[in-house]
């Protein structure tokens, strides 16, 4: 079959192709929109499997709390049975007997006359048990369930903070390598222009071929450095992509956030934060949990009182001469269980519980002291990084000015190639140190955010935002 294309069909086909390629180009452009640190953090929180497992544990702990509340309520059970007594007759008496005043003197009732043929027995009934006083066991069990739930939810925050710290580290690694790729490109471009200038000067006979070759060697080294930096950038993007759930080709980061203004605003927000480390909250919950466990042990010294009631059915009906129908009756009672002698077992358990409480208190105090030390250390590290960033910025500006003057002097014949190469090397080193200092300032700020609890607050706010959506 042949297809004929008229002018209209060709126009429609061309329009469709233009729209298709335009959409693909737009989608590719959208994928390359530079991402901020906050966007990478949000993606990591949504895709991390460790966080999802911790969230599942938190949901399970919530069900544990609901289960503990049911211990206050009465329990109703049903039990039933079917019994086949076998083929033998049931004889309640071993010998013939007489009943005084009923059987004549000298006579007795034959044993076979009072034997009972076996019959199937059906029985069933409902039983209700309501705790009245259990020595505080139910109250403490509910408290322990709530503390366990608190621990599980704080564990989620701790996992989120760990993930955020990993994201920050991977993010700043990409930023560092990304900036060094640009630096390598700029350095190579400088050498390319220098080679071109020297070749022009050599063509005019104003320099030697040896001088040109020296710069060309540096040019080759710069090209190799650029290739290594590009490979390192790809690997660092792959690592970040594994954390946030994106391909390396989709990752493009905005390096403008390393500016002093951005760091200052984050530091200011950190100073005004009153967040608390999840580890401290967890240790407090653990302390409360051990205290409830001690009260639970002490409750073994107290009596247990409970109400019991029920209704039972049986066939044959024993209430009406074993007739072949159901017969039943209800019952109600109060049960009391009082511990008397356990040979010191409960005393030993109380002493064990006391030691667990003391241990939990020491763990909390030790953690608070260590966190205070960590916060102070990270504050010093960040302050040093800020000072280093300030000095490296100044050194970079001075190296740029030195390179400009040396290049002008070279063109005027006042400097040689060695001088310009040294100036370029000095500039490259100063620029690389400036990049490292900026990244170090950002990394130390992230570490400070984690030690002060700001990352936990960030994770909590992210969770609340997701729940509102």
From TrEMBL:
Give one GO term, molecular function aspect: efflux transmembrane transporter activity
**At the top level of its lineage, which domain of life is listed?**
Bacteria
Q: Per the database entry, which stretches of residues form a coiled coil?
A: 350-416
The main location is membrane
Offer one Pfam family short name for this entry.
OEP
Which interval of the chain is the signal sequence? Answer: 1-27
Keywords from the UniProt entry:
Cell outer membrane, Coiled coil, Membrane, Signal, Transmembrane, Transmembrane beta strand, Transport
Q: Where in the cell is it found?
A: Cell outer membrane
Any one of the GO CC terms:
efflux pump complex
Classification via PANTHER family: OUTER MEMBRANE PROTEIN TOLC
Which family does the similarity line name? Belongs to the outer membrane factor (OMF) (TC 1.B.17) family.
Q: What is this protein called?
A: Outer membrane efflux protein
* Organism this protein belongs to: Porphyromonas asaccharolytica (strain ATCC 25260 / DSM 20707 / BCRC 10618 / CCUG 7834 / JCM 6326 / LMG 13178 / VPI 4198 / B440)
Q: What is the lineage of its organism?
A: Bacteria, Pseudomonadati, Bacteroidota, Bacteroidia, Bacteroidales
């Amino acid at each position: 079959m042949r297809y004929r294309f008229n002018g209209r069909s060709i126009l429609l086909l061309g329009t469709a192709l233009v729209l298709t390629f335009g959409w693909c180009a737009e989608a590719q452009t959208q994928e390359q929109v530079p991402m901020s640190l906050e966007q990478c953090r949000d993606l990591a929180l949504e895709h991390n499997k460790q966080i999802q497992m911790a969230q599942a544990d938190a949901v399970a702990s919530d069900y544990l709390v609901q289960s503990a509340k049911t211990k206050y309520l009465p329990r109703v059970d049903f039990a039933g049975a079917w019994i086949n007594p076998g083929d033998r007759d049931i004889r309640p008496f071993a010998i013939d007997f007489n009943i005084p005043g009923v059987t004549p003197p000298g006579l007795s009732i034959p044993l076979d006359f009072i034997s009972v043929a076996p019959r199937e027995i059906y029985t069933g009934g409902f039983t209700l048990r309501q705790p009245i006083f259990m020595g505080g066991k139910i109250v403490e069990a509910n408290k322990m369930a709530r503390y366990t739930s608190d621990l599980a939810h704080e564990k989620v925050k701790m996992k989120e903070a760990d993930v955020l710290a990993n994201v920050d580290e991977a993010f700043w690694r990409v930023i560092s390598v990304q900036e060094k790729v640009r630096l390598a490109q700029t350095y190579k471009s400088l050498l390319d222009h220098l080679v071109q200038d020297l070749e022009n000067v050599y063509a005019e006979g104003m320099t030697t071929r040896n001088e040109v070759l020296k710069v060309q060697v540096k040019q080759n080294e710069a090209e190799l450095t650029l290739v290594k930096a590009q490979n390192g950038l790809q690997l660092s993007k792959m690592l970040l992509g594994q954390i946030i759930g994106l391909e390396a080709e989709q990752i493009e980061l905005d390096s403008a956030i390393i500016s002093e203004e951005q760091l200052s605003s984050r530091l200011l927000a950190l100073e005004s934060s009153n967040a608390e480390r999840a580890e401290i909250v967890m240790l407090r919950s653990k302390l409360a949990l051990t205290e409830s466990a001690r009260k639970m042990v002490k409750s073994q010294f107290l009596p247990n009182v409970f109400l019991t009631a029920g209704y039972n059915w049986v066939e044959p009906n024993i209430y009406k001469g074993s007739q072949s129908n159901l017969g039943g009756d209800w019952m109600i009672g109060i049960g009391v269980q009082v511990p008397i002698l356990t040979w010191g077992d409960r005393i030993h358990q109380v002493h064990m519980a006391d030691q667990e409480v003391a241990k939990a208190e020491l763990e909390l105090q030790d953690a608070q002291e260590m966190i205070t030390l960590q916060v102070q250390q990270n504050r010093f590290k960040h302050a040093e990084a800020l000072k280093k960033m300030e000095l490296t910025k100044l050194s970079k500006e001075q190296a740029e000015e030195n390179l400009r003057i040396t290049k002008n002097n070279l063109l005027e014949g006042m400097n040689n190639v060695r001088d310009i190469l040294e100036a370029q090397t000095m500039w490259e080193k100063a620029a690389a140190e400036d990049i490292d200092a900026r990244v170090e300032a950002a990394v130390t700020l992230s570490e400070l955010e984690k030690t002060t609890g700001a990352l936990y607050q960030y994770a909590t706010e992210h969770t609340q935002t997701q729940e509102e959506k």
